[in-house]
Amino acid sequence: MAPDPALSRREFVKNAGGLLIGFSVLDFTVAPQLLAAPLEDPGFPSPARLDAWLKIDKDGAIRVFSGKAEIGMGVETAFAQMVAEELDVPVDRVAFVLGDTATTTDQGGVGGSTSISQGSKPLRNVAATARALLLQLAARRLGAPVDQLETQSGIVRVKNNTSKTVSYADLVGGTDLNDLLKVSGQGFGLNVEGIGRLKNPDSYTVVGTSVPRRDIAPKVLGTFRYITDIRVPGMLHGRVTRPSGVGAKLLNVNEDSVKGIAGYVKTVVKGNFVGVVAETEWAAIRAAKALKVTWSAPALVFP
After folding, report:
1. CA angle at residue 61 from 39 to 164, to 5 degrees?
2. DSSP of 72-133
3. In angstroms, how far apart are the furthest CA atoms of the chain?
4. Which domains does the chain have, with CATH numbers?
5. What is the per-residue pLDDT across 131-141, written as a single tens digit (0 to 9) for each?
6. β pairing state of 94-98 and 62-66
7. Residue 224 CA to chain centroid, in angstroms?
8. Which candidate, 123, 125, 110, places its Cα nearest to that of 73?
9. What is the rounded distance in angstroms from the CA atom of residue 254 to the CA atom of residue 287?
10. What global pTM score does this model have?
């Protein structure tokens, strides 16, 4: 699931009509200050900002941004369960934007079965931190200490007076909250931590249960958008021309050898890298195959 690529992240968030929330690791004992003015456009999402990972819409729906992608492993379903668990919301209230480089943090892509083992860590910590902040806000609203509050299905209530409740949506209102998370690692190993503490697995009610995979029905019905289905305005296609062998060095590129191919745009040369850009995938394939490139004879790698 991804927003219109023609929209900036800022426009997407504004159009969604929700609240962005963030936290500070500088002082875990003080609730973040409410900001009257909207946040400045942060540009490429920074993993240090919680609003780069999670937002709560005015209707209480949870929108999560992850640099991972759903390519048949069922990670969106698993991620939704983890976020729902830590945030205490129904799993069907959690929606995802996955692998959109304009709106998600850089988590190194997908591979090596790392989406769950590594990619889920920041999502769980973000959800736990969001819940911790919501409890702090609810304590102010309900006039009760945090340790006398509990959360369930997107609602905060006083334990000994369950008539006193407030929803996540009512708590966030329309005000942006901005603060920082502690970042460690990068790429596949990227993690963030905030004021939230993860639940004890013994208390899990969502993780470990069976829920329908989100990607199955669209695939069966033929409506699932694979990466090869995506088209954006001005989209171009690229192909890499590989060297003749390990250790070969680029000597010459004859760009004239492909200028006659319909749809060819340009050849890109950076150091020892050679690639072609074209208007269509087929034109890129043809150009990469036809491009005349001279490489040095590689030295023997093995004795």
Report:
1. 95
2. SS-HHHHHHHHHHHHHT--GGGEEEEES-TTTS-----S-TTHHHHTTHHHHHHHHHHHHHH
3. 80
4. 9-227 (3.30.365.10), 236-295 (3.90.1170.50)
5. 999 999 999 99
6. parallel
7. 19
8. 110
9. 12
10. 0.70
